Amino acid sequence: MPFSTLSPAPWYNRLAETGLLTGLLLRAAAPAVAQQPAVPVTITVDVAKSLAPMQPMWAYFGYDEPNYTTMKDGQKLLTELAALSPTPVYVRTHNLLTTGDGTAALKWGSTNAYTEDKKGRPVYDWKIVDGIFDSYISRGMKPIAQIGFMPEALSTHPVPYRHHWKPGDNYNDIYTGWAYPPKDYAKWGELVYQWVKHCVARYGETEVQSWPWELWNEPNIGYWKGTPEEYQKLFDYTEQAVHRACPAAQLGGPETTDPRDPKAAAFLRNFLTHCVSGTNYATGKTGTRLDFITFHAKGRPQVVDGHVRMNMGVQLRNAVEGFKVVAEFPTLKNLPIIIGENDPEGCAACSVELSPQNAYRNGTMYSSYTAASYAHLYALAAQYQVNLRGAVSWSFEFENQPWFAGFRDLATNGVDKPVLNVFRMLGLMGTGHRVQVTSPTALPLAETANPDRSPQPDISALAATDARSASVLVWNYHNDDLPAPPAEVEVVLRGLTVPQALLQHYRIDQDHSNAYAAWQRMGSPQNVSAEQRATLEQAGQLALLTSPSWVSSKNGETVLHFTLPRQGVSLLRLSW
Fold first, then answer.
1. Average pLDDT over the chain, rounded to whole?
2. Distance between CA 176 and CA 194 in Å, rounded?
3. Given this model, what pLDDT does residue 446 score?
4. Where are the chain's structural domains?
5. Phi/psi of residue 36, each to 5°?
6. pLDDT band at 39, cuts 50/70/90?
7. Is 1.10.10.10 the CATH number for 56-428?
């Protein structure tokens, strides 16, 4: 991912100081390393061999800062997200019960939903949180309604409460008064009841029943300053309150961190044990109702020899270990699973300026990684026979930040990044059935989910069909951000029952669907003119590689040839 030497962004000099920039520029000038097969890659798609429904588990997004929702660029991005999916998009955000005036900041947000008067009586104010949920509902989206964090008036340790974290600060500084247990569990339960009851009155019971409600975020680390048992107690009181207000509502948890960590896996396992056979803190009975299960799966990119090396295997192994824990509970193993944060690494607000391993975020490495990782997740869910409902990309936008500052986001200053176009491609694949794909250059699942995975490229595809179309998502991904020749790809579609189909070939690469590359060609300006903005906005949209054309089928087989650059993604969509 080379950086322009003209009009550098503020983080350019910092990258030069770290040595990463030097390595990037040296490898950009070096001869390309031939790592591709010498012969064309043949990917075979059998449209007659259905594997499973094309569950849109990718149509899930999330972010820390809820107040960005109602800001200018947040509103624009929500409209784009709603438009890209054939089914409702789900949105998860933190801080929906945090005390404050609604001012947005990195890793922070507030709604002031709960305060108390001088006599300690509850005061409920739903104005800000209603504005957030209204933004979703008006677009046909659905909140993953996260119940958290602790209002200042209920916290057992309220001071200090508001943090002022910024990139480069100690991450542990964010865990202030909002992270503590309540001083009164009954008041907490009543807050939850009043909120759900209010939502039923505002949006209707049928709508609220369709939302996944969940308790807290990452309670096995600093986000929860209580004990595991206190979290279980909080869940019991929350469950009682949610279902008192809306009996058919869906409530899940515990949103723990990566299950490859034995401590995180133990927290998840102990929570599930409590739900199955523990003593309910609120009722005294055995067990607690649980409607779906959540945990996180993150990767771990690094800087190696002057370039970024992703670690998709770490992320996928986290998913696998979570699936395994759930499978230990026969009465729970068929419950829906939502991977509440499903990302290449752990800190969306940590920009490339201070975290050079995050230099993958602006360009095509993020988009090819996303295409490959979601496809592999489909396969892993099938292999482990779990009910994977959704996998949340913890990425949104950061309002009023420098252009392409290297946050993990989908857009910068209202301009879409290449990664957003992968989700547009997935949306165009529809909700039919996934079908069989065979590729000699696809990494086997066992190797894909291995943190010490092979240095070979992963050139493969995800395919789906419905009554009137067939779609093939093809990627040329590699863990190392190093130059390489493009791949010559042959896609053979078998089992087609129509003589002709209209082919639309969409592409993400350096020249297509890539506002970052367009911005670099402008000289990487931070003061973007109106004309430049219009150019960048157009460059950020999903683009066709070629004009639509008619292709023929012979003996039920259609063959397509094209060149796919390293870290490029193509969507071949045939309709009839």
1. 92
2. 25
3. 72
4. 11-49+430-575, 56-428
5. -90, 155
6. low
7. no
